[in-house]
Amino acid sequence: QVQLVESGGGSVQAGGSLRLSCKASGVTYQYYYMAWFRQTPGNEREGVAFIDSDGATNYADSVKGRFTISRDNAEYTLYLQMDNLKPEDTAMYYCGAALERGPIATLDYRGIDYWGKGTQVTISP
To answer: Which class for 66: exposed (0-12), middle (13-18), buried (19 or more C-beta within 10 A)?
Structure first.
């Protein structure tokens, strides 16, 4: 059974940092394309950052230069280092895994095979 478990969320002030983690189990992790998404109430899930098994990345314009996605294939773990956080980064953050590169590489939530349950990030002014 595939399971993705996010952790590391919390509440910080603007300008602060957080590091999210997503631990995978039940998958051959190195074959999966991985990404972080976020969602606020009433809005669609928004792509934040993507990484393939070789380390190639793609970021949403809103987080470029502030967020860094990485993965440890040996530990089956995905990370999102978030620096210089802004109130508009407040959201539930989810990790997603896909076997095909297509939509996930362009930060499209469609085509994700597996989702975690999310971790809340709240940034105060």
So the answer is: middle
